[in-house]
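Technical note accompanying the year-one report. For the benefit of new consortium partners, we illustrate the data format agreed upon in the data management plan: each record pairs a sequence with a structure-token string. No post-processing was applied to the example shown here.
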Amino acid sequence: MSNTPSPIFTWRRLEDFSSTELHAILAAREQVFVVEQQCPYQDADAYDAVAWHLTGHCGPHLAAYLRLIDPGPKSPEPSIGRVLTTRTFRGTGLGKKVVAEGIRYSHLHFPEMTVRLSAQSHLQHFYHSFGFVPASSHYIEDGIPHLEMLLPPPPKDSP
């Protein structure tokens, strides 16, 4: 897609963000997951402290975000969640870039592990395009249909 933005991706732990950067992330998450989806729930949670946070900036603007929770606290596998593209950058292909970067980073840091995510049901085909396969029946979380999906680790290189 010729108009797909080329974001600058940055991975950080929670404590490495300035207060202004953290505010921008939490405001974007609240805008998408609470306001736009009309889903009142506590977005900021204990998993933020045990996750890698990916920000994608286009110029000064936060354009995309996801978090990658370490294996253990939430599931045995690393877990991708809170995937978003801000309204201005939707429909540009940036969502694919942020998910691809999340997968790349997970495979780099957890090379022999499956990656888990809880997908909104209407996004099942989107995540399937990356190789994720359903691992549960559909269920309701915060009033929205979801399903667990898993991405197997990449094949080991041949010697």
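Partners are asked to follow this layout when depositing records. Helices lie at 19-36, 94-109, 124-128.
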